[in-house]
Specification:
heterodimer, A: mainly alpha, MetI-like fold, B: 242 residues, alpha/beta, Rossmann fold, 2 domains, six-stranded mixed beta sheet, four-stranded antiparallel beta sheet, 31% helix, 23% strand, binds adenosine-5'-diphosphate, binds magnesium ion, cell membrane (chain A), MetI-like_sf (chain A), transmembrane (chain A)
């Protein structure tokens, strides 16, 4: 008897085991608070069977047939080019593109103004707070807000994802800028250059590879999330999914759209990864990109 | 009577008021003078250079530049060549050298990245002066150590500064390459630029500097001629006696 209690005591002395015990008890309490029971899971499996029966096989007419109800309306002659999948995916890509470009244009100056090695501490701290505030809300919530403000359509999606991109990209960027070596910045400071020139001509070019790679990463991210914001009406392929979900419950078409989206997202991730890998590699800098970024490098 | 460019007056230098790295620094640089700075590693040479550049305030005492407080120096009047050169990575030689002309760009020239003809011209001249005209569009990352030093010097030359602060600019270069760099610095000084250069090798410093200062303990002392002769050369520089 005392042996058992000794074992229990030794057992409880281990921090890992105590933590595990506390977490298990908490999980059970939380689950019961949420009224999660095993019978619900049983319901799910029967629902799942219904859905799979209705969704399978996927109905790829979404790739071939014209969506006369597309918004903005599609004026192309060929039917498949006006199909929900093509129109929706194109919109998602366009929204992601605009949001990434706008996000980059807005976030780069903000990032430079919030890098502690480039900006005065008070300014850096307050702009960081602003960037953090933009990141608090996920892009889906921003989309809800902008759908209310500017109405249903791609504009709401662009604005929503721009907000999130600025917050997220800004953080990545000021971290990259803070990582540049101290010496070039000291050379600039010794020359007596103003802070914005130190940032623009010394820090940003030095960090150009990471900045470009982050921008591509943000584009990938925006393509993935651009599919979600459509569900609340902010344009893109998600909007077309929503159209089939409610009230028609055409799960086979939704599944086809999901497959199309999946394939496109994977393709974009792969291409983007290839390109980014070239930036991350140290040597040598691709002149093509450099000229895009810094047009006066020809001395 | 040549003008006094840099004047450090009874300054304490370092990061900690209680324990400065160097105390009672008296240092004067006249126009066109090359002054060497030696001392063992970790003693505070780089810190002194950065203080003269205005990057760190002196703990006490004052620094004046061309007769006015150092903080009032005009843009581009002081050039810095840091220990690891401070080149902008992955950018071309031309871009890096052009940066030396940035202090005299008008706001719209820098805002819209439109360097003036004069800025481009002086960049080209400086790149030619250091013999890198074939490399002007090459990324600095693909240059050798000696070539990278030339780029840093060319950038300082384009500034046409009154003072150049060069930290370990000769580093571990072989004698031949070091000679080329020294000649470039000499040319710069002949045009009236004062140069304060750190060289951990006092024997070499003596060969090309007008004066050599040494950090010893917490003091900055000037090496007189006799004293310089008494300074033992580094063992590696001595040929073993046969
Ligand atoms: N930013 C800093 N803050 C505090 N101490 C520093 C800093 N930079 C250098 N030091 C210290 O100052 C001393 C002198 O460094 P440094 O000037 O680089 O020497 P040297 O160039 O002669 O080799 C070293 O002990 C170093 O650790
Ligand atoms: Mg040093």
């Amino acid at each position: 008897m005392s042996d058992t209690s000794r074992v229990v005591q030794i057992f409880l002395k281990r921090p890992m085991i105590r933590v595990a015990l506390v977490l298990s008890v908490l999980s059970v309490l939380v689950a019961s608070h949420l009224r999660i029971t095993l019978s619900r899971l049983g319901d799910a499996s029967s629902n799942l069977r219904v859905i799979t029966q209705e969704a399978w096989p996927p109905d790829f007419s979404v790739v071939t047939d014209r969506a006369s109800w597309a918004y903005p309306p599609c004026e192309l002659q060929t039917d498949w080019m006006c199909s929900p999948a093509v129109v929706g995916m194109t919109q998602t890509l366009e929204i992601a593109f605009l949001a990434t470009i706008l996000g980059m244009v807005l976030s780069l100056p903000l990032a430079a103004a919030s890098a502690t090695n480039l900006a005065p501490p008070l300014m850096a701290q307050s702009i960081r707070q602003l960037l953090a505030a933009l990141r608090v809300l996920p892009s889906l919530i921003w989309a809800l807000i902008f759908v209310i403000l500017v109405g249903i359509g791609p504009l709401a999606g662009v604005l929503a994802m721009t907000m999130y991109s600025v917050g997220y990209l800004g953080k990545l960027q000021y971290e990259a800028l803070e990582g540049v070596s101290r010496e070039p910045l000291e050379v600039a400071r010794t020359m007596g250059l103003p802070r914005w020139q130190v940032a623009r001509f010394f820090a940003i070019p030095e960090a150009a590879n990471s900045l470009l790679s982050q921008m591509l990463f943000m584009f990938e991210y925006n393509v993935r999330h651009g599919s979600v914001v459509g569900l609340v009406g902010a344009g893109g392929i998600g909007w077309y999914m929503q159209y089939y979900l409610e009230p028609f419950k055409l799960y086979d078409r939704v599944l086809a759209l999901i497959i199309v989206m999946y394939v496109v997202v994977i393709a974009i991730d792969q291409v983007s990864l290839r390109i980014r890998r070239r930036f991350i590699e140290d040597e040598p800098m691709r002149p093509k990109w450099k000229q895009v970024f810094l047009p006066w490098t020809d001395g | 009577m040549s003008e006094q460019i840099l004047s450090v007056n009874s300054a304490a230098i370092g990061f900690d008021d209680v324990e400065p790295l160097i105390e009672g620094v008296e240092l004067r640089l006249r126009e066109g003078e090359i002054v060497g700075l030696t001392g063992r590693s970790g003693i505070g040479k780089t810190t002194l250079i950065r203080t003269c550049a205005g990057l760190i305030p002196p703990l006490s005492g004052s620094i004046s530049f061309a007769g006015a407080p150092l903080g009032d120096k005009a843009r581009g009047e002081v050039g810095l060549i840091p220990q690891r050169l401070g080149l902008i990575q992955h950018q071309t030689v031309g871009y890096n050298v052009l940066m030396g002309a940035l202090p005299r760009a008008k706001w719209y020239q820098s805002a819209f990245s439109l360097p003036s003809a004069e800025m481009r011209e002086s960049t080209r001249n400086a790149v030619e002066a250091v013999g890198l005209q074939d490399k002007i569009l090459t990324s600095v990352n693909s240059l050798s150590g000696g070539q990278q030093r030339r780029v840093a010097i060319a950038r300082a030359m384009v500034q046409s500064p009154k003072l150049v602060l060069a930290d370990e600019c000769l580093g571990e270069l072989d004698a031949e390459t070091a000679k080329g760099i020294i000649n470039l610095l000499r040319d710069l000084a002949n045009d009236g630029t004062s140069i304060l250069i750190v060289d951990h090798n006092p024997v070499r410093a003596r060969t090309f500097c007008d004066r050599v200062l040494q950090l010893r303990g917490k003091r900055l002392v000037e090496l007189g001629d006799e004293e310089q002769d008494a300074t033992p050369a580094l063992p590696v520089l001595r040929r073993p006696e046969q």
